[in-house]
Design brief:
The structure is a homodimer of 355-residue chains.
Chain A lengths: L1 E6 L27 H9 L8 E6 L3 H7 L8 E4 L5 H15 L4 E6 L3 E2 L2 H15 L4 E6 L10 E7 L9 E7 L4 H10 L2 E11 H11 L1 H13 L5 H8 L8 H6 L5 E5 L4 E2 L4 H7 L8 E3 L2 E4 L5 E4 L3 E5 L4 E5 L3 E6 L6 H10 L7
Parallel strand pairs in A: 1-2, 1-4, 2-3, 6-10, 12-14, 13-15, 14-16
Antiparallel strand pairs in A: 4-9, 5-11, 6-9, 7-8, 7-9, 8-10, 16-17
Chain lengths: 355, 355
């Protein structure tokens, strides 16, 4: 079994802590180790280091290698630019199929939070069993609330219990539903969140790419051929910008009828915004999550994330407060998704020092 | 004419900018000069430096002298401890009556904001005319809203127009009314806010003290007698703690039937809380007042006061945000008066570094 850790995100919605030069996955946001390191530690019992690959932005390669000293340096691949998850996964597939086309390859994100590591590894084992039968496997999360920022998976026919773990044919994918639809999905009990964590044999996903994303498939073959004579970095510099940009969800999973979902009850969160930290982290009796020095008076359901200063709150509720060396962010938790817009605005105003 | 500037407050409700070691009146909160300096500049056209006294806390004497280099050092008096406005004014009265018992003495606060300086000086001249007839004069402010944090003055019989300025007998003082009463006061048109700015002859206020505050009167005579042989500082160290603590409002003005109010339309604010700055300072089209770098998105009626960091707000309304080197404060503007409670809590927890 092989694992591919996708570590190329920018984590804009966790600004101002997450910055261009140091995005979410490279930060110790929730622990003393970074999210990337925690992700690595979590899967290390299942994979030897030489079976783990990390795909990240070119600018982060040195930082990633520094954070993961046990990983052979060549297994950290830097994309010259982001092209979505399908090409990134494709690069991992090329690495694996050279060694063993029938090996199972997992694709995971470097910036997800998972509460129960052991249950997670057990779920990966179950997913591998299903993947070995030639399916495209995605892990599905029991929805905790009618989240509108996630993709939903409708469960179809049960597949039996490989490895003692339930699995279902995927009847339908629905991206980011409106609030009413999300509510119906959650109430029906038939829907799971799409975690973006996948398992498949290298040969299976390569075949599916050939069918559903032929341009990407050809690009990958071109890259593979060029790498015989040239260094991978040089090849990517030349060819990566010609690779079609697409997510694996849209490109393959939503089209293929070969997709199976394995429910994962592991305490998953994509830490997609500051509001997610209010759900993930332990709160006090007023529902406040305080990271750093927080003086709270008549304060409820509020996240305080402080880099060093004391944050004093009085009479506030449902608020996100993030204090960094050069920026203080304040927004209601139900606007946490729009933090991205602030970053866009700063980019527009060319205030690069804050990006 | 003499002026006594009361500069002994601690400005707790403007924490965390106002600190024990550097209270509100010694800060450049609203301008490039401090509130004390602005107060001095405002009255300087009416009083030569040798006719201006400043009463402040012992700890602030050097700072006050440094901020007001034109003022003879001996005219800055340091109280060993705060005893309320009546004893502080009493000290000023002692200074003035030695020189001219019939001189008019003004009492002003070092931490008030006044928009129209020239109108203010004209009003002081009018108040002096009334004071010379033996009245205790207080300046009354036309209420702008049903503020519950101020004292209200009910106007009585008109006194005629000395110096072309209206003046009224005071029918009644009411301290900090409840919201419903405050609303009725404002609607009636018969009430003015008590500004705490007074004018009277030294002899008049000394006589009133003898009648209504005989213990204070005796203390002042004792201090005056002791100062013949000893330095004022030594005398105060010995006697000040025995002086009864009281405000001039409660001690005399609410009792005497000799009080006259002169309306003052001068753009007055006592800058009593951060919320006051939202009223005083120029706002943008969304009603925001931004001092420092403020990135505002969907933000209304919000005060941002920043010491250097950028403050980014998204989807907030009616909020006070104050960023200093070591503390960030966030509260709704209608809780601005309660900032004092945060300071009390820090004092209780002995977190003196933040006081």
């Amino acid at each position: 079994m092989y694992a591919l850790i996708l570590a190329g995100g920018v984590g804009t919605r966790l600004w101002p802590r997450s910055r261009r030069t140091r995005p979410k996955q490279l930060l110790d946001l929730l622990a003393t180790r970074t999210m990337l390191q925690v992700t690595y530690d979590r899967i290390a019992p299942l994979f030897p280091p030489e079976n783990i690959f990390v795909i990240t932005g070119r600018a982060y390669v040195d930082e990633v290698r520094g954070q993961l000293p046990h990983l052979p340096a060549g297994q950290v691949v830097g994309e010259p630019m982001g092209r979505g998850t399908a090409p990134a996964i494709g690069l991992g597939v090329l690495q694996v199929r050279r060694r063993d086309p029938n090996a199972v390859l997992f694709s995971l994100h470097a910036d997800h939070h998972i509460l129960r590591d052991k249950d997670f590894r057990d779920t990966l084992q179950a997913a591998a069993d299903v993947a070995r039968d030639g399916f495209l496997v995605t892990l599905g999360i029991q929805p905790a609330h009618p989240e509108t920022g996630y993709g939903y998976i409708e469960k179809g026919r049960a597949l039996g219990h490989p490895g003692g773990h339930p699995a279902f044919r995927v009847a339908r994918f629905t991206e980011k539903p409106n609030p009413e639809t999300a509510r119906q999905f959650v109430e029906s009990g038939r829907y799971l969140w799409n975690s973006g964590i996948f398992a498949w044999q290298a040969s299976t996903i390569m075949d599916e790419m050939a069918r559903w994303m032929p341009a990407l498939h050809q690009s990958l073959l071109d890259i593979e051929a060029a790498c015989v004579d040239e260094a991978e970095e040089t090849v990517l510099d030349r060819l990566w910008q010609t690779v079609p940009s697409e997510s694996i969800d849209v490109g393959i999973l939503e089209r293929s009828d070969n997709v199976v979902v394995v429910p994962a009850d592991v305490g998953w969160s994509d830490v997609g915004s500051w509001a997610a930290l209010l759900n993930i982290l332990p709160s006090d009796s007023d529902g406040n999550v305080s990271l750093g020095d927080h003086l709270a008076m008549d304060t409820r359901q509020t996240l305080v994330y402080s880099a060093g200063r004391m944050v004093a709150t009085l009479g506030v509720e449902d608020l996100i407060i993030v204090d960094t060396d050069d920026v203080v962010l304040i927004c209601p938790k139900d606007r946490a998704q729009d933090v991205k817009k602030l970053v866009d605005e700063l980019a527009r105003k060319k205030q690069d020092q804050y990006l």
